[in-house]
Amino acid sequence: MKSKLLAGIFVLVLMVGGYFALQTVREESARERVEWDTTVESVVRTIEEAIEANGFVHPRYSTDVRSEVSARIEKILVEPGAMVERGQALLELDRAALEQEFIEAQRNHQAEQLRLERTQREFNRLERLSHRGIIEQQEFQNSEIELRLAEIQLQVQEARLQRVQEDLNRTTIRAPQSGVVADLDVNEGQVIVGAGSVNEGTRLMTVHDLSELYVRLEVNELDIGQIDLESLTRVSFGVLDGYSVPGHVSRIHPFAYNRDNIRVFRVDVAFEAGERTVRPGISATVRIVARRVEDVVAVNLSAVFTEEGERVVYLVGGNGELERRTVEVGVNDTQWVEIVSGLEAGETVSLVRPRAFAGG
Question: Exposed end of the chain (fewer CB within 10 Å): N or C?
Fold first, then answer.
């Protein structure tokens, strides 16, 4: 009776063990089928190996607007962020003091004109008398000097009148270039200092020319050798719903510097804003094409494995058999890699390493 019980237990253990072994085989077979289903064909395509970096937008040309005369601001005609054209009026200065000075300059000019006319008549009279020998030569020469002095004094008053007239014209501050107004930090009623020979004067605002902008990047020293002035670039702006425009490398700064213990170079990428208004100061992402190949055989990066220092793929034959094949790779992007040799277009490869070759 006891032997029969032991025999029954033994049979039960065998059945349970066989069940779990069968389940393991089924699971292994299922995983194998998943691997066999995970395949892809090699294709012919264009691949670009690119460097991506982030930076901020800067205007290529910016001009600080300053007054050439000292006066009180009477009226500001623009708002920060306004688009202006070259020559457009930006603000008006108080003209009262200059208008009074202009009237005074006009009167002084008229007085010098009259004085010159009188001196000219006296000179003409003495010149006639001198020819007749009635007066001494010295008296005539003195009258000639007086005439020259009167002429010079009139020129001085003419210059002063012209200067005051120009200062009056300068009370209307105009845009030095087309662009957008920024840094408008003055107020109506504020007294400003004009730019002179010993000071820069009060900065009224800045006008940024938006016709050409650039992004300043910091590129790792390991990548800088792949960039030149002919490199293709694309500039995109996340805040503008992914809007992007073509650009070009306008400058590669010659010296590196430390940024978070990494040696980097400044690279400027210029671009035109195009249809959308791109404001200075916003962030941008620049994609610089380092290398580009066209019409090459390529596969997904996941299909290429590194084994014993070699790059290999696993070719899937028509009968389902696997072949381990060594390949030479070239340019790659984030998804595709160029196959220089070892694979033809249209061949099917596995995206996972088969277990049969796992120890290879």
Answer: N
